[in-house]
Amino acid sequence: MPPKSHLDRSAIALMVVLCLVWGVQQVTIKLASAGISPVLQAGLRSIGASVLVWAWAMSRGVRLGEADGTLRPGLLAGVLFAFEFALIFWALDFTTASRGVIFLYTAPFFVALGALWLLPNEPMRRAQWAGMGLAFAGIVVLFGENLLLPSGQAWIGDLMMLAAAVLWGATTLTVKSSALARAAPEKMLLYQLGVSALVLPLLALGFGERGIHAPTALVWASLAFQTVVVASASYLAWFWLIRHYPATRLSSFSFLTPVFGVLAGALLLGEPLTPAVFIALALVGAGIWIANRPPAGN
């Protein structure tokens, strides 16, 4: 399948499903954190997903060991991926998830800025910038009141989340601008899962985390969902999309994830559902539509 310059209906539908899955993941992380410390949780997820994706690749005859120029960018993407998640989880010791998400979801802007230099074949139009700005405004509407209520060390966590956003964008750009863009999605993902499977448990030890301290059936089920559905199936689909579609257009859909996360929290955890959620969903939806509509005359 040759690369495309715009998102077709199949890509749009798949991205909405992925954002829904990633939104539900926010709930399962909360549930699993009751029994497994966060960074170790991410490491265990990467270990399990590495095994699953490797088995899937072997069953499909994907050549993982051939020399195709992906080793260096693959290891770089893996390191970026590992430290992104370490920063996200560590930041929650200093700031709230609702504050942090505002800083984390600046990532699409870093992808767009980096694309100006690294992805000349994916030029950003004014409408795309405007659409992403409108979608980000939806996230601010959803969580913005928390910006007015910082705790003493919240700025430390906020900076960590911002750094994680930079790493998220850098990972996407590394994949899209290197030989990884021509590699099988399984190989792209295994670089990141493999490195993070090694790095994250060591970071968990370095952070002095409690580890597995209260395992229950719900905790293990939440970790299994993250491992099988999120880190294996959804990430494979994401890297397949990155290989075939413009990264800047795909990234604009990520603004749906925190909105779906709040909706999932309301449905699964009984968390409050306010009018701001629906305002945010309308703004994000409008922003995505503006960012992805074809230029006039096409």
Automatic annotation (TrEMBL):
Parts of the chain that traverse the membrane: 42-62, 74-92, 98-119, 131-149, 155-176, 188-207, 219-241, 253-270, 276-292
InterPro entries: AA-Vitamin_Transporters, EamA_dom, EmrE-like
Cross-referenced Pfam families: EamA
Keywords: Membrane, Transmembrane, Transmembrane helix
The EamA domain, residue ranges: 10-143, 156-292
Protein localization: Membrane
UniProt topology in membrane: Multi-pass membrane protein
GO CC annotations on file: membrane
Main subcellular localisation: membrane
Family: Belongs to the EamA transporter family.
UniProt-recorded name of the protein: Conserved hypothetical membrane protein
Originating species: Azoarcus sp. (strain BH72)
